[in-house]
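Q: Joint fold for the lines below.
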Amino acid sequence: GENVEQHPSTLSVQEGDSAVIKCTYSDSASNYFPWYKQELGKGPQLIIDIRSNVGEKKDQRIAVTLNKTAKHFSLHITETQPEDSAVYFCAASMGQGAQKLVFGQGTRLTINP
Amino acid sequence: DAGVIQSPRHEVTEMGQEVTLRCKPISGHNSLFWYRQTMMRGLELLIYFNNNVPIDDSGMPEDRFSAKMPNASFSTLKIQPSEPRDSAVYFCASSFGQISGNTIYFGEGSWLTVV
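A: Joint structure:
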């Protein structure tokens, strides 16, 4: 089936520490893996994405890694700040032509000052 | 540039009433998605359109739900009759071209409460 598993569901870290969120997906044909950040009362916003021809991508304090063989990908946030507190969702492209996104269940990240 | 625009932002309605949610995608985008978000089930894709044509509606929960896209700049999601279990946040999103190469942008959502 079309499924994305995301762990952990909640994560609390001290300001300045790193946070890691992991996802696995079911469809070996998936080729696009975005990460979204959702703040309270708002829609999800893309923060970083990776495509299947790349193993790692970095944008300032945020990085994503992809292991296609194992069908898992991870989000890494370094030097966390209070404004990083939010719900984070991973997603994978699936379905006919891999044209729809299936989302993980989300991780509520809390940065403690 | 305006983002994806949804209306209403909030709606409270009585069980059995018809609910219509509206979406205006980003100008020039040719793919449109309707998602539902609940605590229990997370973000679920209900239906998506490409060039105004429904491509995959396998996520539509039942016949009470219907979606249309009469033109490239407007889509509706209708629930008739509504039930309390339909209470959720409904998101519309749009993208240009294939999602594997382009970002999907979400609207701010329509918060629906059915009492």
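Q: Anything notable?
A: The mean pLDDT of chain A is 93. The interface with chain B takes residues 31-32, 34, 36, 41-46, 49, 51, 89, 93, 95-106 of chain A (CB under 8 Å).
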